[in-house]
Amino acid sequence: MNQSVFYTFLQSSLLLFSLLLTPLCAALQITPKPLSASVGNGHFNLTHDSKITFNQQQAQRVAQQLATFLRSPTGYQLPVSQADSTTKNSIAFKIVDAPLSQEGYALSVTPERVEIQANTATGLFWGCSHCDNYSLLR
Q1: pTM here?
Q2: What single string gives the DSSP state of each residue in the chain?
Q3: pLDDT by residue (tens digit) across 88-99?
């Protein structure tokens, strides 16, 4: 895939992340259908004090794209930094050695944090773009 097409696609898909600002739909509408999903109560509140973190250099680009994308609609200058653990009030992108496909991801949302785990940066990208199906931010 041409690099400029990839970045355009990445930016367009991150637009879907803005839907984090909307309530959870009654039924998850994710394509492809996830192997498993569970929906709990609550949501993650994005604030001006929130942080975006990544654990490996290959995850940095996706984390930075999210920070750039969220800047306009929120006005927040969310810092992006490398961190091995997920801290409170953060959105964490983690490259992990897990039994996931190359583009697979695991998304966990709690009132304290959002964590997207994948084997590759592509998986992190898909996890970020599918967050619109969850009540993450209000």
Answers
A1: 0.71
A2: --HHHHHHHHHHHHHHHGGGGSPPPSS---SSPPS-----S--PPP-TT-EEEESSHHHHHHHHHHHHHHHHHH-----EEE-SSPPTTEEEEEE---S--TT-EEEEE-SSEEEEEESSHHHHHHHHHTGGGS----
A3: 999 999 999 888
